Amino acid sequence: MSQSHPPPTAKALQLRDPVSSTTPTPTDDQFPEGGYGWICVICIFLINAHTWGINSAYGVILSFYLSHDEFPGTPALSYAFVSGLSISCALLIAPIVTYLSPVLSTRVFIILGVLLETASMIGASFVTQSWQLFLSQGICFGFGMGSLFISTVGIPNQWFKRRRGVANGIVAAGSGTGGLVYSLATNRMIENLGFRWAFRVLGIISFTVNLISGLILRERRVSSSTTTTTKKKKGGLSSSLIQQPAFLGFLSWGFFSILGYIALLFSLASYARAVGLDSNTGSLASALLNLGQALGRPLVGALSDKFGRIETAAIASALCGLFCMVFWPFASREASLFAFSILAGLGAGTIWASAAAIAAELVVELRAVPGALSVLWLVLVVPGTVAEVIALQLRDPGSVQGPYFPVQMFTGVMYLAAAGSLGVVFFFARRDLLLSDG
């Protein structure tokens, strides 16, 4: 089966607007589909592992905070806000990075992100009051993670078209791989070194890996006479695109996905403790969830190149929702919890594996992708901030089905709503295709 052209859905989603349609789109032969692009994929994989991957380990840290009295008098909701704040700050900085990208190089944002993330980890190791966690582990880490993520997330699109889904899936798997490693490592370091030295070790490792990867990373510049992927033309986005029903469905998918994703990611370790399992079991469950993401994101990317990016992302989101509603409530023993963690992980992080590739389908030019993604990241700020707060508030110790049953239902419904939003995108894409065919 030839893979030289995008599937019909992708064609339908290339929504023409008066601004972006004036410049020709690069043809297939202008993308090397490999070469140094694979080096870039590996570098971004490692950056994701040491940003989102380390952030994923907060589920283990949150479980430690909830079960120990390190900061006396601090309510559980405060700890939940810290986890949400790091993600929302990472997304909030997106428009700033996008706006400044035509005048500042990607390497500047990478170095800034490395310094901020390292400062946050080292700073968190010296905190004595809970409010200081908001500044270090929340705001500072979030801005550092966002600077690294936003400035690099679109680079695979510059090197790949036919294999774009695979490339984006691999780089997105970095966060799952990092989450797998650091969920286990963080729990072990907390047990053997204490949580303060655990932060310091994480800071040193992330500084080294992110700095080296960022220095090796390279953007691809193509002659402006043939394409618009040059650095000086990044970030354009037509206001008419934002009004398209397909794009609004894309934003809704992100909104619901992030609510379900954070509720699942940060609740699993504390859920294990709530049903009588120990902290090692909780950290291993979080690690296996990240293992599922590490396996599932490249799989989603590969399948999306063959069967359509919208359809694949919708199915993956729906399956994750069903697992949360049908399987998770009965996962009260180690074996069943571990099985659920892996299965749910396969579709849990679909948004990170598919967002960049789907955004590239929604616009005609690659230079508009950062702008489209910036709108998405801004939409995710509010749900990213409150998702774990909602999950903690939904816990019901008196529930017959278990204290986390409302959380499980909430998570499942959010993923199903995300899948339904992609159904809206698919519907309007098909409608536009039929109208264009007369």
Could you describe the 3D structure shown?
This is MFS general substrate transporter. The chain has 438 residues and is mostly helical. The chain contains 19 helices and no strands. The chain has helices at 8-12, 36-49, 52-56, 58-67, 76-92, 94-100, 106-124, 130-152, 155-159, 164-193, 195-216, 239-242, 245-274, 279-307, 309-326, 334-348, 350-362, 369-394, 405-436. The model is unreliable at 1-28 and 223-235 (pLDDT under 50).
Q: What is the succession of H and E elements?
A: HHHHHHHHHHHHHHHHHHH
Main beta sheet: strand number and arrangement?
Answer: none
Per CATH, the superfamily is MFS general substrate transporter like domains
What's the N-to-C terminus distance? 27 Å
The helicity comes to over 70%
In what range is the share of β-strand residues? under 5%
Keywords: Membrane, Transmembrane, Transmembrane helix
Transmembrane segments: 36-65, 77-101, 108-127, 133-153, 165-185, 197-217, 247-269, 312-331, 337-360, 372-392, 412-429
InterPro entries: MFS, MFS_dom, MFS_trans_sf, Proton-linked_MCT
Subcellular location: Membrane
Topology, please?
Blueprint: H1 8-12, H2 36-49, H3 52-56, H4 58-67, H5 76-92, H6 94-100, H7 106-124, H8 130-152, H9 155-159, H10 164-193, H11 195-216, H12 239-242, H13 245-274, H14 279-307, H15 309-326, H16 334-348, H17 350-362, H18 369-394, H19 405-436
Helix pairs in contact: 2-10, 2-11, 4-5, 4-13, 4-14, 5-8, 5-18, 7-8, 7-11, 10-11, 10-14, 10-17, 13-14, 13-17, 13-18, 13-19, 14-15, 14-16, 14-17, 15-16, 15-17, 15-19, 18-19
Keywords: Membrane, Transmembrane, Transmembrane helix
InterPro entries: MFS, MFS_dom, MFS_trans_sf, Proton-linked_MCT
Subcellular location: Membrane
